[in-house]
Amino acid sequence: xxxxxxxxxxxxxxxxxxxxxxxxxxxxxxxxxxxxxxxxxxxxxxxxxxxxxxxxxxx
Length: 59
Hints:
- The chain is α+β, with helices and mostly antiparallel strands.
- Helix content is 41%, strand content 14%.
- It contains 2 helices and 4 strands, in the order αββββα.
- The strands form 2 sheets. Strands 1-2 form a two-stranded parallel ribbon. Strands 3-4 form a two-stranded antiparallel ribbon.
- The mean pLDDT is 76.
């Protein structure tokens, strides 16, 4: 979906809103903070199995 420029622009606006409100994309550096879990697709398939991603941050 991020290959669609209109969708990408809307997503960037939404992501900035999250960041402005103290919610950041999940990473190993911010495991103890409020996190936003983001999945990305490529050609209609998720980049990473969603369950593996959730397990990584919520053990």
